[in-house]
Amino acid sequence: MHSFAEDAKECGDVIKVSGNAHPMRLQPLAIRRCLNNLIENALRYGEKADIVIGETDDEVVISIRDAGPGIPEDKLEAVFTPFYRLEASRSRHTGGIGLGLSIARDMARKQGGDITLKNAPEGGLVATLVLPKQY
Ligand SMILES: Nc1ncnc2c1ncn2[C@@H]1O[C@H](COP(=O)(O)OP(=O)(O)OP(=O)(O)O)[C@@H](O)[C@H]1O
Ligand SMILES: [Mg+2]
Fold first, then answer.
1. Quick one: pLDDT at residue 128?
2. In this predicted model, which residue has the larger pLDDT, 1 or 130?
3. Positive or negative: CA dihedral 34, 38, 44, 48
4. Most buried among 7, 27, 53, 121, by the most CB within 10 A?
């Protein structure tokens, strides 16, 4: 996460990282891709990414909150469908083919975890990646 934030600073992107978690064994490329897809969405649709890392006894939890419009409640699951894009995104020039979330969830699930989305009460979307600890 901290290396993402470093890269982003060089590109002028707004990424903030706080918190920490116990080191654990993961597939580095898969997890990087997974996080990258979530951060890319936060920056593309929500202007910034506030990332908080935390953990419980058996899980590491990484949440990424942006400052965008969020996603309608009845579409929070549908956006994980391959090639699915919300109406507002289809008309944007900001690229994207609608695979990012589906790939990210696939990778999280292959490592025994998952990704969920919710709208923050104070606005913006929160994407939460939960990974079971494995040593
Ligand atoms: N942080 C977000 N805020 C608002 N809408 C979002 C956010 N993240 C995703 N979406 C909506 O969900 C859709 C699917 O996201 P997904 O990442 O799967 O595809 P994409 O960003 O359109 O393309 P790409 O394949 O480049 O990731 C987006 O097109 C957008 O409509
Ligand atoms: Mg995307």
1. 98
2. 130
3. negative
4. 53
- Rounded CA separation 41/57 (Å): 29
Q: Dihedral of CA 69/35/76/22: which sign?
A: negative
Of 87 and 91, the one with more pLDDT = 87
Could you tell me the residue range of the domain that residue 28 belongs to?
Answer: 2-132
Instruction: Give ligand 1 pocket residues (Cβ under 6 A).
Output: 37, 41-42, 45-46, 66, 68, 71, 79, 84-86, 89, 96-102, 125
- Number of domain units in the chain: 1
Ligand 2 centre to CA of 38 (Å) is 7
Give the mean model confidence (pLDDT) for residues 44-65.
95
Pocket test of ligand 1: the residue of 15, 38, 43, 45 to mutate, having most ligand atoms within 8 Å of its CB, is 45
pLDDT of residue 93: 65
| CATH code of the domain in which 112 resides | 3.30.565.10
